[in-house]
Write a structure and sequence with these properties.
97 residues, alpha/beta, 4 helices, 15% strand
Length: 97
């Protein structure tokens, strides 16, 4: 069963990660309090969380901004707007054997 938890910003997401234990985090790059890149850095910098796959979403399709997502440890990038089928495909690729 898939359970989705929504957070309004990166700081709130980071605070909830220990509590809700997720395998995948979808984060907008541009958020208040802590942006998506900062969230990715914080998740990967926490010893018990490196298994979490992060998908950073942005309206930018410029190569340098997409590369920046991967430099911060994103497992994938989604360009906005995107179809929900794209989101499901990203999650499915993480769990294929």
């Amino acid at each position: 069963m898939t359970k989705v938890v929504f957070c309004e910003d990166g700081k709130r997401c980071l605070a909830l990660i220990d509590e809700v234990r997720r395998d995948v985090v979808f984060s907008d790059v541009a958020m208040p309090e802590m942006d998506g890149s900062g969230l990715a850095d914080a998740i990967h910098g926490t010893p018990c969380l490196p298994h979490i796959r992060i998908v950073l979403m942005t309206a930018s399709v410029q190569r340098e901004q997409i590369d920046e997502c991967f430099r911060h440890g994103a497992a994938a990038h989604l360009a906005k707007p995107f179809a929900m089928s794209e989101r499901r495909a990203r999650v499915a690729q993480f769990f294929e054997s």
